[in-house]
Design goal:
alpha/beta; Rossmann fold; N-terminal domain of TfIIb; 2 domains; seven-stranded mixed beta sheet; 29% helix; globular
C-alpha cells in the first residue's frame, strides 16, 4: 500500500464515528440513483460506498450491487447494516483504492460516484485513472454517473480561512456534537484543503475533539467532460441537480452522465 493510499484510508477511517450523523438529513441523490439503476436494468457498482447509505435503497429495490470503499472501518459499518435487511447478503463489498480497482465482474450496467468522492483524489492523473478503472468495469452501453460540487469561485473565496460551525446535533445519550470546518483555497492547483473538527461534549461537560483533515481537487465542467472522454466514455448529459436540471452558473452540483460505447457497432 502506498503512502498516499494509507493516508487516504486513515482519513476515512477517522470519519467513521461521525459518518452517518453527518449524512442523517441527506437524501437528495437517492431517488435519481435508484431510478437510473432500475432504468439500466443490470448489476450496479458504487464507487465509494461509505457505510452503505445508498446500498440499502438499491438492495431494497432488488438490484444486484457491489460497493467499493478504501476504508475498512466504513465497510464494517456497511456490512453490519446490510446484515439487518432482507437480501443484504446479496451485496458484495470490496475494500479497494479506486485507482487500482480490478474486479472479476466487468459487466456492470450502472456505476456511480457521488458526494464528491472522486475529488478526494487530489491529483488530476489519479482522477483520470479512477475514471478509466470505472470504465473498464462497465458493459458496452453501461452508464457512469459522476457527482461533484459546482466550483463556485465566490463561495470558495468567501470561506477561505474562515472557521464555520457547519453542523451540530444531540445524541440520545445526551452528548452534543459540534462540527466545525476550516477551508483554504489554492485556486491555481484547484485544491481546497479542508479541516473538520468534531467536538463531542458529554453530559458531564467532558470534551473530546477529533480532527479530520482532507484535500479536495475540484473540476471544471469542460475538464470533467474531457477526463470522461479520455477514460473511453461518451458524455450524454450534464446536470446541476438530481432533478436533471441543466448545469449552469447557479447550480450546486456538477453531475455528469456518460456511457461506454458499444465497440461492436
Amino acid at each position: 500500500m502506498t503512502q498516499a493510499t494509507e493516508s487516504t484510508r486513515l482519513v476515512f477511517d477517522r470519519f467513521t464515528r461521525f459518518y452517518d450523523e453527518d449524512y442523517r438529513h441527506y437524501d437528495e441523490d437517492i431517488e435519481a440513483i435508484v431510478h437510473l439503476a432500475q432504468e439500466m436494468d443490470g448489476p450496479v457498482l458504487e464507487l465509494g460506498c461509505g457505510t452503505g447509505r445508498l446500498l440499502l435503497p438499491l438492495v431494497a429495490a432488488g438490484l444486484p450491487v457491489t460497493g467499493v470503499d478504501i476504508s475498512p472501518a466504513l465497510l464494517a459499518l456497511a456490512r453490519a447494516k446490510l446484515g439487518k435487511v432482507p437480501h443484504g447478503d446479496r451485496v458484495t463489498l470490496v475494500e479497494a483504492d479506486l485507482r487500482d480497482l480490478t474486479l472479476p465482474q466487468r459487466d456492470y450496467a450502472f456505476a456511480f460516484c457521488t458526494s464528491n468522492t472522486l475529488m478526494h483524489l487530489a491529483d488530476a492523473a489519479d482522477q483520470l485513472t479512477a475514471l478509466e478503472r470505472a470504465a473498464t468495469h462497465l458493459r458496452p452501453g453501461g452508464l457512469l454517473m459522476l457527482d461533484l460540487f459546482h466550483p463556485d469561485i465566490a463561495r470558495l473565496v468567501e470561506v477561505h480561512g474562515v472557521m464555520e460551525l457547519a453542523d451540530q446535533w444531540l445524541r440520545e445519550d445526551g452528548t452534543e456534537v459540534m462540527k466545525w470546518s476550516v477551508r483554504t483555497l489554492d485556486l491555481a492547483e484547484q485544491l481546497q484543503e479542508t479541516l473538520f473538527i468534531y467536538e463531542e461534549i458529554g453530559p458531564d461537560g467532558s470534551v473530546r475533539r477529533t480532527r479530520c483533515p482532507f484535500t479536495l481537487r475540484f473540476l471544471w465542467r469542460n475538464e470533467a467532460e474531457l477526463m470522461l472522454r479520455l477514460a473511453g466514455l461518451q458524455v450524454e448529459a450534464v446536470w446541476g441537480d438530481f432533478e436533471g436540471t441543466p448545469y449552469d452558473n447557479q447550480s450546486e452540483h456538477l453531475i455528469l452522465l456518460a456511457t461506454k460505447p458499444d465497440s461492436s457497432r
